Amino acid sequence: MEVVILPGEEQIAAVGADIIAQHVAARPAAVLGLATGSSPLRVYEQLGRRIAAGDLTLSGCSAVLLDEYLGLPTGHREAYRQVIEREFVERVDIDSTRVHGPDGSASDVVVACAEYEEQIRAAGGVDVQLLGIGGNGHIAFNEPGASLAGRTQARMLTEQTRRDNARFFGDDIDAVPRHCLTQGIGTIREARHLLLIALGSAKAEAVQQLVEGPVSALWPASALQLHPHVTVLLDDAAASRLELREHYLASAEHRLAGQRY
Ligand code: GLP
């Protein structure tokens, strides 16, 4: 795991976009794993700017989402497929029909989850997966207690996550769905490169557990310690509780020439 502490969101977005561009340069048909939430937004904006400037194209890529609410009416503004359409697809030059997410309107969720796993497999697996992190250490919608080897499945959200996400539903927690479909941690861990972004002091404890804590279902993101290629991009506030903070800063300062993320 490489922990990179950067001064602010713009620098984080630049490194995040560099990493995605590096994957696309290596494989123009790269499969991008997308995350919703506010943390990756600036990366999506950066990618859009690079494409507009003619420095990058995602036209050969496909993309898969981490998770989806269950039971929102089709086309609901806050359904993650819609959010990704607004925040990502409309900014870049990817073909919208090659962007896939779990089917939150499925009548048989077990079948929908199995089909989604198959879709990811058929695409050749995810080359680079963007991730945010919840204040309670969730990744995608794998809340504390989730299996660290789980596959795509239906899950129930915690009160805390529903409260956190109520801001997208007119501050009405009752409007936030109680259930979701999410890639399991086992599914996420099959992506070849994981790129996690955390911003702000509300993430500091979860980040400390992710990077330095014991691997534990209490902090699902800690399972990323078992993945061979993880890059964690943090602002100062999100990094503030890391015990080895000085070491991570020094490692970033003394990166080897040409060292890749
Ligand atoms: C939601 C998403 C997660 C995301 C988390 C953090 O619960 N399902 O994938 O990482 O929110 O969001 P934010 O980046 O807005 O803090």
Notes on the protein architecture:
With 261 residues, the chain is of the alpha/beta class. The protein has one domain (2-253): Rossmann fold (3-Layer(aba) Sandwich). The chain is built from eight helices and ten strands. The chain has a seven-stranded parallel beta sheet with strand order 1-10-9-6-2-3-5, with helices on both faces. A three-stranded antiparallel beta sheet has the order 4-8-7. The longest helix is centred in the N-terminal third of the chain and has 18 residues, at 9-26. The radius of gyration is 17 Å and the shape is globular. Bound molecules: 2-amino-2-deoxy-6-O-phosphono-alpha-D-glucopyranose. 2-amino-2-deoxy-6-O-phosphono-alpha-D-glucopyranose (GLP) binds at residues 35-39, 66-67, 132-134, 140-141, 161, 165. 2-amino-2-deoxy-6-O-phosphono-alpha-D-glucopyranose is lined by residues 35-39, 66-67, 132-134, 140-141, 161, 165.
Descriptive terms for the model:
single chain; 261 residues; alpha/beta; Rossmann fold; seven-stranded parallel β-sheet; three-stranded antiparallel β-sheet; 8 helices; globular; binds 2-amino-2-deoxy-6-O-phosphono-alpha-D-glucopyranose
Round the mean pLDDT to the nearest integer and report it: 97
Distance between the termini: 10 Å
CATH class: Alpha Beta
Shape: globular
What gyration radius follows from the Cα positions, in whole Å? 17 Å
Q: What order do the helices and strands follow?
A: EHEHEEHEHEEHEHEHEH
**How much of the polypeptide forms β-strand, as a percent range?**
15-25%
* Ligand list: 2-amino-2-deoxy-6-O-phosphono-alpha-D-glucopyranose
The major pleated sheet works out as: 7 strands, parallel
Helix content: 25-40%
Structural class: alpha/beta
The largest sheet has its strands arranged as 1-10-9-6-2-3-5
Indicate how many domains the architecture comprises: 1
Tally the beta strands.
10
- CATH names the topology as Rossmann fold
Number of helical segments with 4 or more residues? 8
Q: Segments where pLDDT lies below 50 for 5+ residues?
A: none
Assign the CATH architecture.
3-Layer(aba) Sandwich
